Amino acid sequence: MPPEKLHWAHLYEEVVTSGLCTGCSACVVACPYDVLGYDDDGRYKPFHVEATGGATDCTHGVKGCTLCTRACPRFRDWEPEIEQHLFGRPRTADEVEGIAADVVLARATDPELHEAGQDGGLVSALLVWALENDVIDAALVSALEGDGTSWKAVPAVARTRAEVLATAGSRYTYSANPLAYPEAIAGGAERIALVGMGCQASAPGVMAARKAGKVARRFALSIGLLCSKTFDDAIFDELFQARYGLERADIAKMNIKGVFQVWTHGGEYHEIPLKEAHAWTREGCLSCPDFAAEHADISTGGIGAFNDWTLTLVRTERGREVFAAMQEAGAVEVRPAGDDPGAVALLRRLSRVSRKRWPATAVPIPGRLPETQPA
Ligand SMILES: Cc1cc2nc3c(=O)[nH]c(=O)nc-3n(C[C@H](O)[C@H](O)[C@H](O)COP(=O)(O)OP(=O)(O)OC[C@H]3O[C@@H](n4cnc5c(N)ncnc54)[C@H](O)[C@@H]3O)c2cc1C
Ligand code: SF4
Ligand code: SF4
Predict the structure, then answer these.
(1) SS3 of 121, please?
(2) Residue 97's pLDDT band (cuts 50, 70, 90)
(3) Lower CB density within 10 Å: C or N end of the chain?
(4) First to last CA, the chain
C-alpha cells in the first residue's frame, strides 16, 4: 500500500459505487468501529451506518483508520499484491486460472461426507479434518435460513462435524460468509477457515498482504469455490415458481451442470436452461473476473465428467500442507486431473471468459499490454 492513508471514502468512491464491488463483505468485518453495515436484501453492498459523516465519511478514516481498504479484494492493485504475498510472484499471462501447485480430482473417503457434499464432498472433508486436527477452531460457511424451506442462503459458523454436514452442498444465491466472523469470534475461535466463491476467498490473502490487523491473522485457511455467477433470491419466485411451478419448500437439491438442475422432495427432476436464468444474475457478479477462486489456499469445483469428484486446485504452501496431511491420514482419495482432460480444458475456458469481465473502472490487468486490455 502507498503511504497515502486510504480509507472508507476512497473505498466508497473507487469500489462500492464504481461497479467493482462484489459484495464480499470483507470491509465490513475488518472495520474495528462497527460503522459499516451490509445490505443482503437484494443489493449485497456495504454502507456506512451512522448518520454523522453521511454515506462517504465514516469519520474514523480521516483520523487514520485504513482497515476497510486493506481488506478489500477489489481495491486498486489487488491481484499482484495478493499473488506476490501468497506465491512470491504475480501470475504469468498463461496462468489464466491463477497460480496452482497441483490440479487433481479429489473426494472424501468418509461416505457420509461424500454423500452430503455437492460434488466429491472434499470441502466438507477438509473442514472436518481441519477441525479435528487442531488446524482451525471454526469455519465460516453458508447455511439455509431456518428449516431450509425458504432456500435463503445465509452466512453461518461450523465448529463440529455435524455443523459441517448440515451446511454442505451448494446454493446459487449469494451468501456473504465473512459476515459470520463475529459469531465465530464470540464462540472463542482464533483460527478460522473461510469457505467462499473467489470474491470472498481472496479476502484472507489481501488482508494478509496488506496487514489488516487481527482479522487478517485469524484467517488460517481459505477454501475457494469455482464460480461464474450467483443469482438474486427473486429467481425462486419469478422463474422457478412462476414458470416451472417449483415452490421453494418443494426443492430438495440444486446443481448447475450446463443447465439448472432441480430435484424435488417428491422425487421429480427438472432442468431449467441457464439462458432463462441470466436475467436474475446478481449485479455484483457482472464485473467479476475470478472464476477459479484464484487466491484461495485450495479451490474446488464441480466441472467435468465425474459428478462425484471435486476438481481441486491446491494453490498455496498452506493448502499443500493441509492437503498432503489429509492424504496421508486417508481422509481424501485423489486421482490425476489428467483422467478428465475435458474438466481442465473447461476450467481454463471459463477462467478466460470471466477474465474478460475485468472492469474498466479497475486498474488495468497486470502484465498485459494496453491494446489487449478489455474495453
Ligand atoms: C454460488 C456457487 C457457484 C458455483 N459455480 C460453480 C461453477 O460454475 N463451476 C464449478 O465447477 N463449480 C462451481 N461451484 C462449486 C461447486 O458447486 C462445489 O461447491 C465445489 O465443487 C465443492 O464441492 P464439494 O462437494 O467438495 O463441497 P461441499 O462438501 O458440498 O461443501 C460446499 C461448501 O460450500 C458452502 N456453500 C454452499 N453454497 C454457498 C454459497 N452460496 N455461498 C458461499 N458458500 C456456499 C457450503 O456451506 C459448504 O461449506 C459453485 C459453488 C457455489 C456456491
Ligand atoms: S468488494 Fe468486498 S471488501 Fe470491497 S467494498 Fe465491496 S464488499 Fe467491501
Ligand atoms: S461471479 Fe462468483 S466469485 Fe465473482 S462476484 Fe459473483 S459470486 Fe463472487
Answers:
(1) coil
(2) very high
(3) C
(4) 27
Only one residue has cell 465425474, namely 306
Domain positions in the chain are 8-71, 91-228+283-372, 235-280
Q: What is the DSSP letter of 119?
A: S
Domain 8-71: give its CATH architecture. Answer: 2-Layer Sandwich (3.30)
Q: Report pTM.
A: 0.97
Q: Minimum-distance ligand to the CA of 332?
A: 1
Which pLDDT value is given to residue 131? 98
* Dist. CA 69 → ligand 2 center (Å): 8
Predicted pLDDT of residue 3: 58
Position 375 confidence tier, pLDDT thresholds 50, 70, 90: low
**Which of 171, 228, 286, 357 for mutating ligand 3's site (highest number of atoms within 8 Å of CB)?**
228
- With 80 as the cut, is the pLDDT of residue 199 above it? yes
Q: Are strands 153-158 and 138-144 parallel, antiparallel or unpaired?
A: antiparallel
Q: Which CATH architecture has domain 235-280?
A: Roll (3.10)
